[in-house]
Amino acid sequence: MKKIAVLTSGGDAPGMNAAIRAVVRMALYHGIEVMGVERGYSGLINGELFKMDRSSVSDIIQRGGTILRTARCEEFKTEEGRQKAANILKAYGIDALVVCGGDGSFMGAKLVSKLGVKTVGLPGTIDNDLAYTDYTIGFDTALNTVLDAINKLRDTSTSHERVSVVEIMGRNCGDLALYAGIAGGAESIIVPEKDFCKEDLCRTILEGKASGKNHNLVLVAEGVGGAGELAKYIENVTGIETRATILGHIQRGGSPTAADRVLASRLGARAVELLMEGKTARVVGIRENKIIDMDIDEALAMERTFDNDLFDVALAINK
């Protein structure tokens, strides 16, 4: 293994820079040259590569986003586009590629590996929706960003004695809403994995008001959506002033937490070790605080399970 490349793909996530830093410095430590690929698979196809050294990743571990930037790439979805990417890597003398992103990025790494390119994937997404790993890079930071926002919303919700409906990102995974709901003491948590009844929600809000509760915080996962419509419904049924807030892409930004920086560093270093061991088409993750790796096909095929026990805890302690 003489030269590797690293790219970030899909949505940005806090901690991606820490992962890039770990990949670069671990590779250099072992005498392996590193090339950075700008703008994900799009930049790979267009030959946007540059040589990286230790100074290339200095002073980035605390920064959100990704210094390599990221972009969607329709061309890479074609066989011709992927072959072009493989040819670019070959032209630069690159032996392997490290990809940091979500399931779509992993699918790209899987397909390019079939063209003779050694690949390893790092789970970089705030959604925490990759079944093979307990946590993804960026999830903890996004969680704390959401928590800070709902803490502030609770202040004004309490002052005005109103209901606050907050829409949380996460695509079709309810983890971000669930964890934020427990940490923030939300009275109601609505996620794609669980059915909910609007009438029951309104009844709970009215019962809370009758018992002296002067505010309500309702978290709605992005996969359910409709925070604005739900807020209008609650206000019409209960007569309580209700406001909707969609946090949006603020959840993706910000300096990564210590947990995300350490996780990204551990995963990035392990990715380089796997390539040095001659392994390919692998993904790296964490389970029970131990770094693991597995076949990318197996990882993508795994069915994600929702933590029903944690949801039950939320129901018991947050009302």
TrEMBL record:
Substrate binds at residues 125-127, 162, 169-171, 222, 243, 249-252. Mg(2+) binds at residue 103. ATP binds at residues 11, 72-73, 102-105. The keyword Kinase applies. Transmembrane segments: none annotated. It comes from Clostridium cavendishii DSM 21758. This is ATP-dependent 6-phosphofructokinase. Its cofactor is Mg(2+). It is found in: Cytoplasm. One of its GO terms (molecular function) is fructose-6-phosphate binding. ADP binds at residues 21-25, 154, 185-187, 213-215. Its main location: cytoplasm. Homotetramer. The active site is at residue 127. Pfam families: PFK (PF00365). Residues 3-275 form the Phosphofructokinase domain. Pathway: Carbohydrate degradation; glycolysis; D-glyceraldehyde 3-phosphate and glycerone phosphate from D-glucose: step 3/4. Catalyzes the phosphorylation of D-fructose 6-phosphate to fructose 1,6-bisphosphate by ATP, the first committing step of glycolysis. The lineage of its organism: Bacteria, Bacillati, Bacillota, Clostridia, Eubacteriales. InterPro entries: ATP_PFK, ATP_PFK_prok-type, PFKA_ATP_prok, Phosphofructokinase_CS, Phosphofructokinase_dom, PKF_sf. Belongs to the phosphofructokinase type A (PFKA) family. ATP-dependent PFK group I subfamily. Prokaryotic clade 'B1' sub-subfamily. GO terms for cellular component: 6-phosphofructokinase complex. Keywords: Allosteric enzyme, ATP-binding, Cytoplasm, Glycolysis, Kinase, Magnesium, Metal-binding, Nucleotide-binding, Transferase. The keyword Metal-binding applies. It comes from the Bacteria. PROSITE patterns: PHOSPHOFRUCTOKINASE. Gene3D superfamilies: 3.40.50.450, Phosphofructokinase domain. Allosterically activated by ADP and other diphosphonucleosides, and allosterically inhibited by phosphoenolpyruvate.
